[in-house]
């Protein structure tokens, strides 16, 4: 279904179409559909192959597998933001009776609880959910395969527990909570636990012959939160737009940003990938992508976003294997980002700024190292090192008149202006780092003091 969108240059659209078509053909996938999202909407959407005799469009449902985990994470963080739980809480405090009650909610969200990757019994994604009707049925007799907190180990049962936790605290099935709290506000009317026409059939493609085998479509029961959902390219495009711009009706902006903060050490052999809270992270050169891939028998899916590029991309296929779906989807994003980079919005002066805040603007020095402090909208500050590195940060205003670092070395540290008897600012204290208006300003209180003769000239000599 060729795209009719005028939002991309014709040569970019053709390059996307070529990449889509070449991938569908080389993977011998029955169908493949993808979309690129910019400014809150798809600027390109196209399908290749066939679903019910036609190329798939944006309204055709596919199973999205583990992208389901990102949706479950939203529900858990909404409960956290309401004060119903904390990420440091042990699971047993809210969902008693499991064999892993000491695992924290945060460790389950980040796959660091040490749980086994899969539940006991036959391959759960091809088996009826009735084989595991209860939450206890998703855990092995000895459910831990690693010491808790030691390493990242992807666990499908961990998210089954999180879905049960949501149901326990909300008093209704997690799918109903998801529909009311996330899907409806975002307008994702074609996303849910069951397929509805038009939807793709799941297929396995023979590795050595161009023949197909249908994959069974199972209800996953208690394992549903690990990979149950169905969705469409249109709906996942809406989800990508949410991941980029946020929506306070669904999740606070700081909680959404928290999802994409690395929450575990990467494997030594794969430093380019990491995991946040229910969110995969992928480093491609200087570009950081956040989102999730999905894979269940018969289906592959991915949603990636790049906040620096203000771009999102989604892809859906109805084949069990054969497409490196995460890499393919990232390729589409990079293709657009490199050919048609984001055009920044026009510079605008701040609508207003407090005079006391403006007094803090300008150069500051940590010892001899030069920094610039700039006031931002809504009372935020931005501290940047003129030499570069990781010592810069954005700072959020706090109720007590201080500012709290949001990134880098100073994340979580407080900036406190220090004043003399007249009320004039003498220096800044940022997590005990003293910033002065002159390098090692003798008028400021600097740990270790200032050598009385001051700055020297000529060649250095021993004291």
From TrEMBL:
InterPro entries to which the protein is assigned, alphabetical: AmpC-like, Beta-lactam-related, Beta-lactam/transpept-like, DUF7586
Coiled coil: none
Start and end residues of each DUF7586 domain: 353-437
UniProt keyword list: Plasmid
A Pfam family: Beta-lactamase
Domain Beta-lactamase-related: residue ranges: 25-333
Protein name: Beta-lactamase family protein
């Amino acid at each position: 279904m060729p795209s009719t969108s005028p939002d991309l240059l014709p040569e970019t659209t053709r390059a996307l179409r070529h990449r889509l078509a070449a991938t569908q053909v080389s993977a011998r996938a029955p169908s493949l559909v993808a979309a690129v999202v910019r400014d809150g909407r798809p600027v390109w959407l196209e399908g290749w192959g066939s679903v019910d005799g036609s190329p798939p469009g944006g309204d055709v449902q596919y199973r999205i597998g583990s992208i389901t985990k990102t949706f479950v994470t939203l529900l858990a963080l909404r409960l956290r933001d309401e004060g119903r739980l904390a990420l440091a809480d042990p699971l047993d405090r809210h969902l008693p009776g499991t064999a892993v009650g000491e695992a924290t909610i945060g460790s389950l969200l980040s796959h660091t609880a040490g749980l086994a990757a899969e539940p006991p019994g036959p391959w759960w994604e091809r088996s009826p959910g009735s084989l595991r009707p209860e939450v206890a049925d998703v855990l092995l007799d000895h459910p831990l395969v690693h010491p808790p907190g030691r390493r990242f180990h992807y666990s499908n049962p961990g998210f089954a527990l999180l879905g049960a936790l949501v149901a326990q605290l909300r008093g209704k099935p997690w799918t109903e909570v998801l529909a009311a709290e996330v899907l409806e506000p975002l307008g994702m009317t074609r996303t849910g636990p069951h397929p509805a026409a038009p939807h793709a059939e799941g297929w396995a493609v023979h590795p050595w012959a161009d023949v197909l085998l249908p994959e069974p479509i199972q209800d996953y029961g208690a394992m549903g939160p690990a990979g149950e959902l169905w969705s469409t390219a249109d709906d996942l495009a809406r989800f990508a737009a949410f991941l980029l711009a946020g929506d306070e009706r669904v999740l606070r902006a700081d909680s959404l940003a928290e999802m994409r903060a690395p929450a575990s050490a990467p494997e030594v052999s794969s430093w380019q990938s990491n995991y946040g809270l229910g969110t995969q992270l992928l480093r491609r050169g200087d570009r950081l992508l956040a989102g999730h891939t999905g894979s269940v028998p018969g289906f592959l899916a991915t949603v990636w976003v790049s906040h620096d590029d203000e771009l999102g991309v989604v892809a859906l296929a109805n084949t069990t294997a054969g497409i490196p779906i995460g890499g393919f989807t990232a390729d589409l994003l990079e293709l657009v980002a490199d050919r048609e980079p984001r055009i920044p919005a026009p510079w605008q002066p701040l609508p207003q700024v407090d005079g006391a805040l403006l007094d803090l603007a300008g150069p500051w020095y940590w010892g001899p190292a030069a920094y610039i402090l700039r006031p931002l909208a809504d009372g935020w500050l931005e501290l940047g090192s003129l030499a570069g590195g990781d010592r810069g940060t954005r700072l959020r205003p706090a109720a007590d008149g201080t500012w709290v670092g949001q990134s880098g070395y100073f994340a979580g540290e407080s900036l406190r202006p220090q004043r003399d008897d007249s009320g004039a600012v003498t220096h800044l204290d940022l997590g005990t780092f003293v910033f002065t208006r002159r390098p090692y300003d003798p008028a400021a209180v600097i740990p270790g003091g200032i050598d009385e003769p001051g700055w020297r000239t000529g060649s250095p000599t021993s004291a």
